[in-house]
Each structure stands twice: as C-alpha cells, then as structure tokens.
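User: Let's play a game. I give you a shape written as tokens, and you guess the letters that built it. Ready? Here's round one.
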C-alpha cells in the first residue's frame, strides 16, 4: 500500500482566515454598501463567518429570514436524556438542508460544539418529553417517523417518507425510546452490512434527512 502524505495544511490548520472576506472597502472599493441586510460591523471589519458567499456581510436576522422563505416541511427531533454530544452535528446538517425546526426532547442543554455556530441560523424548539413533542406534531399535522434499526422497522432505502414529516432520532446507547417508537407512524432503519450494531446518530440523521431531500426538495433552490 502506498501512503501519500500531503504537506498542505488540513481542515484543522486552516484557521480563521480560510473563509470569508475582508472589510467592504478593501473587497469592493468605491461600491455602495447600501443593502439594508448588511451589518455595519461586518462591512467595517470583514466577514469571516462560515456562511455561503451569497450571505456575505448580511446581518444574522436577514439570513434567517431569507432561509425562512425556503424552509422545508421537514422537522427533526432528537432525544436528549443523557447529554448527547452528537446533537450539534444534527443541527449543522439540519441547517444545511433548510430543515424547518430541530426539536430537542428532554434536557434543555446540549453540547453546541459540533453545530459550528449553525444553531444561530436554525430554528430550535425544546420539549420536556416525548408526549409534549407528539402532541405538538399532531397539532401541526406532521407525521412522526422514528429512525432506528429496531426489529420491525422498514428499510429507509425503499420507504416513502411523508412530505410533512418529523424524523425522530435516539441517542448513542439507548436509541429511540420505547415510548417514542411505539407512537411513531413508522420506524425506518438504515441498511448496514458490517459488524457494528449501529452507526453514529449524527451520520444516521444526515442519511435520513437526505432521503427526505431526495424525495421532496426542489434542487433549483440549492446553492
Ligand atoms: C448509536 S444508535 C443506538 C442504537 C441501539 N441502541 C443499538 O445499539 O442497537 C443511536 C441512534 O442513531 C440512529 N441510528 C444509528 N444506526 C442506525 C441505523 N442503522 N438505522 C437507523 N437509525 C440508526 C438511531 O436514531 C439511533 O437511535
């Protein structure tokens, strides 16, 4: 086996300056910065945030409002009874797919590190328990689909997901609680072929969200 080692810096060495633009005057000298969506501080200091180029210099509220015009009928819920460090990853992916809202069930606090600040642009809602989440989903006309590889589950690869959908994920260890899976419209599993019992919940959430995207998203709206 030939191992090729790169002398180029990797993602962890790129540092702050990899993304973004400098002050407006440097980037676009002489051009008017008169868009009300622009943030005066970002115009003056530069914009190094991890946002798509179309949102450079925009205020956070303006970015959220713009995504709100294109959010999908897809909601995500994750059980948070044991402090799951993967919730941040789920939130980041939900943001990338313009998910309507990420629902945190159980503990209010969660580890935001993996979210890489994307939680600032993503609607989040807390529910004390599964009963509260399910009641809320019913009122909104959302069909709850649990995602777990438990006996009796339907392969996600061939399942037809509902358009108005709430995908519910469990945690490392316990998985989706019995309380939740027994009340979901169906449980979908992601096919596995190796030795491990399950995949990381952040990865599973990405796969399941993308299954919905493949079915319903208008790719003309993608960046
Ligand atoms: C690490 S898993 C726990 C699985 C279960 N407790 C076990 O060990 O058999 C945590 C969560 O990731 C998701 N997950 C992981 N692998 C999955 C798969 N193959 N199919 C569907 N969901 C999966 C589910 O939402 C699950 O509740």
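Assistant: Ready! My guess for every position:
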């Amino acid at each position: 086996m030939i191992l090729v080692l790169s002398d180029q810096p990797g993602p962890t060495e790129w540092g702050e300056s990899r993304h973004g633009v400098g002050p407006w005057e440097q980037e676009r000298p002489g051009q008017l910065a008169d868009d009300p969506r622009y943030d005066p501080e970002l115009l003056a200091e530069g914009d190094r945030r991890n946002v798509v180029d179309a949102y450079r210099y925009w205020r956070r509220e303006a970015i959220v409002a713009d995504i709100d015009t294109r959010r999908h009928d897809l909601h995500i819920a994750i059980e948070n009874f044991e402090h799951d460090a993967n919730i941040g990853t789920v939130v980041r992916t939900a943001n990338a797919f313009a998910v309507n809202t990420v629902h945190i069930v159980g503990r209010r606090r969660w580890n935001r590190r993996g979210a890489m600040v994307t939680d600032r642009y993503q609607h989040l809602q807390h529910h004390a328990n599964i009963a509260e989440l399910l009641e809320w989903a019913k009122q909104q006309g959302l069909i709850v689909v649990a995602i777990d590889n438990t006996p009796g589950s339907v392969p996600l690869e061939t399942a037809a997901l509902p358009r108005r959908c709430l995908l519910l994920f469990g945690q490392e260890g316990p998985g989706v609680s019995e309380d939740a899976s027994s009340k979901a419209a169906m449980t979908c599993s992601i096919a596995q072929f190796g030795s491990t019992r399950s995949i990381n919940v952040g990865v599973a959430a990405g796969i399941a969200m993308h299954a919905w995207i493949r079915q319903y998203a208008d790719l003309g709206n993608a960046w």
